[in-house]
Amino acid sequence: MENYLRNWRNDLLERQQYAAAIFVGDKLLALTGSDTDAIALAQTHFADGDYTRPLTLLTRTQLPQRSRAARYLAAHCHVKLGRYDAALALLGDKNPTHLATTADSARRKLQHMTAGLSSRQHAKSKASRDERADRSEERDFEEAGNIKYEAGMCYLRGLCFAQQNAFDRAKECYKDAVRIDIQCFEAMDQLMQNKLMGPAEEWDFLESLNFDSISADQTDAQEAAAFTRNLYITRLSKYARPAEFAAAMETLCTHYRLADNADMLLAQAETLFTSSRFEQALDMTSAVLDADAYNFACMPLHLALLFQLEQVNALFALAHDLADSHPQEPCTWLAVGTYYLATERIPEARTYFSKASLMNPHFGPAWIGFAHTFAAEGEGDQAIAAYSTAARLFQGTHLPQLFLGMQELALDNLAIAREYLTTAYNLCDRDPLLINEIGVCAFKEGSYEAAIRHFDLALRLSEEAGAGPHQYRATRLNLAHALRRQKRYNEALEQFNEVIRLGRNDCDTFASKALTLLELDRPLDATLALHQGLALSPQDPVAGELLTRALTQLGTEPLMSKTEEKNIDASLKEKLASSVQVRRSRRREIP
Fold first, then answer.
1. Which residue, 221, 286, 343, 405, shows the most beta carbons closer than 10 Å to its own?
2. pLDDT tens figures, 480-492
3. Is 483 part of a structural domain of the chain?
4. 77, 62 Cβ separation under 8 angstroms
5. Which domain holds residue 491?
6. What keywords would UniProt list here (predicted)?
7. Taking a C-beta distance cutoff of 8 angstroms, is the pair 228, 210 a contact?
8. At what angle are helices 541-556 and 507-519 packed, to 10 degrees?
9. pTM of the predicted model as reported, rounded to 2 decimal places
10. φ/ψ of residue 312, rounded to 5
């Protein structure tokens, strides 16, 4: 009868008929009274979305005190119910670090085991090396299932600490979870998704992991370790070690045929986004959403790309669809806020960004958008406060620090701005936008040579990344201003012309070009440039003042030398004579 009920319950679970499975599981538990059947019934309640009944069942029988699986499930119920203090009380605040394994410890054990062996003994031991290497560790006395539950409980501790804003402790819990069980992807995902580590720290952590500890068939253990490592590499920062990232992507996409997998496409889109290749990145995210319209892992990047490329209609359609289908998702209101920000309806955008951050206080993109609304209205202090919150939530990414630096630059707090920008540079030294802002800071400090070096570097990085020329024309304009201030007028004029060729047609650019031409004693060309600028903005006071100066200079200097005047006079007389001769010949042809 017991086997019959278990098979019946399992069959119902396979069809997600949880109510029926609970009914059968309850009868099975009444018959057996076993811990295994009690945990299975509690897990069925959990799968059905009921987190109170499994807690009652487990605590009534005191299962969490004698079973790791029961303790993990009970703590998970507390987390789902938002009872983080109760979850920590059940889990304890100490991680079982004695169960962790690292690459260094594995190498030391291997050296210790093979020391003193003859070459024949060494060769003989090679086949079973991994099995014997683990016997010196305390974790070897634990069952594999218990180790996974211990890793899962480290992950739950991390969630609890994160909810209490203890992000450093949360980070250590997530890292210990992965060290204990390399396949604890939930913990790895929290580390990467929430940017709790900087790029260098991410790679150091990855190198410290013992992928050989993966429990797999010994015949393909090495391949499983390499495959898992490559998967984790795709989750790391796209700025550090681009060659290794490209190699991992190549292996996964070609050898394992994962080129069309959503996570691979998203990783490639993130790489393209960091390189300012927005059109190609949007193609990738659109492919992901075409296959899975509500892939919320992809949604923030997709929204950022639509905003960057000014695709307002697509933003509206996506936001409207999400509001209808997923009103409970913070990403939905991020989309609505992004649409209003793109249409410059700042109060509405702020409302919806705020709503997204209230639904999930640790949703970094919502805080970034919320801060952008204050920056758009020139509310520097409030923008700085919001960016600071994002910096606290996303400690491993340079973007909040970059935005803080930009705000301080706008307020002319140069010392504070440089401090923020330096912090961002230590996290990421290959972002062209960041290098440009450091150049702006140097420009405002009067260090024009340093500014020129930074602008040149930003342009070079953008070109190496394959970004389109229009993506970095603002940097080229900054370079032109720095060259002009350094009295390298011909080089500055070349840059101004390139900026205008790339489509930056505004009065300020033409006025700056005219100022450079005046410094080169070319008042006529300066006048022409100023007329182009004033055609765009007739009331611009700077352009008007420069035009007066150019016309005054024109009045005191001849437009042409005497030789040029004689050549033009001769050319005009020749053209006039030719015209008269043509008219006479036409008269003779009239019948």
1. 405
2. 999 999 999 999 9
3. yes
4. no
5. 370-556
6. Cell cycle, Cell division, Mitosis, Repeat, TPR repeat, Ubl conjugation pathway
7. no
8. 30
9. 0.84
10. -65, -40
